[in-house]
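Thread: ribulose-1,5-diphosphate complex, take 2
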Amino acid sequence: MKVRIDGVTRDFRTLWREGKTVKMINQRKLPHKFEIYSTNSYIETAEAIRSMTLRGAGAIGVAGAYGIAQAALEFAESSVEEFEVKIRDAAAILVKTRPTAVNLANAVSRCLSVAGKGIVAERVKRIVNEADAIAEEDLESSRRIGDYGSQLIQDGSRLLTHCNAGALAFIDYGTALSPIRFAHVQGKEIFVFVDETRPRCQGSKLTSWELKQEGIQHAVIVDNAAGYFMRKGEIDMVIVGADRIAANGDVANKIGTYEKAVLARENGIPFYVAAPRMTFDLECSTGDEIVIEERDTEEVLSIWGEDENQAILKVYITPRDTPALNPSFDVTPAKYITGFITEVGIIKSPYRENIAKKLSRRLV
Ligand code: RUB
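Output below.
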């Protein structure tokens, strides 16, 4: 993604690997400060995922893969028996950090399954190569999602997105924001309504930052404003990302997605979900089986921001010790979804049949 720092534009990935070190854009500091954060062990990478130094389904999938690569490199001197135990423990620690986005579990289990048998050094090499391959695949699938999805966006379209499913939620480009980026580059005039996305404000902090970097016209709206704009006929299309998609097409995504989908249906607005194959969980029959992450209620009671002296601080917005509830995701039933924008094309209903059919095709 293009990042303008001190007047110079540079290209960054959201995260990358340099030997045993994983580097990432520190998403806890954006949009106020642009900083690169490094982890030197799989334990540190697990903590970066848990604390949301990096977040977004695709990005935590790649971070999980890089974390397993770090663990494999750390255990490279172990005996075969020790290696097998340690790498499994490391996988369990990484996967436990965030339960809803299936990309994390998928990426970690892919790395473990290629390790195979034989001497440790060979297993380490295969794990590291697989982690790098997952990162490259992520990049390629988000480009393809951008290409397919942009064909759905008309010149003059006004779109709504929720949370951040942009380059920062992936290696680059993103899912929901990738078609928007492509449409913009194709010269289409577009405007993006950005849901603020409480409690962590990934929309107002991260999506608005990304769109500003790319020069795409947008405005942040509070979470409860979408219905107002939809009813006035000011939104032509909704595109969101996903954290886990069940075999029947039910979608877990950031809390508040369900409401937007119902409102879109009520107002006759197409509602698309952009996601790669990695986000589909065909072992999950319906959305009822998806585990929803509950996060610390501090996220609801308080908010982080920058004051006028550019100091980053946390302020409480409720009486102290007020009880709060903080489910991080919700499930949107498949019936509200107009289509899935994937790297193998647009998937339409009937979803159970078409998801299984389309996703069995390999990328060429
Ligand atoms: C992120 C979120 C995003 C999806 C889509 O939640 O809900 O919409 O992860 O991401 P969080 P992707 O900020 O809590 O991780 O673009 O990777 O499919």
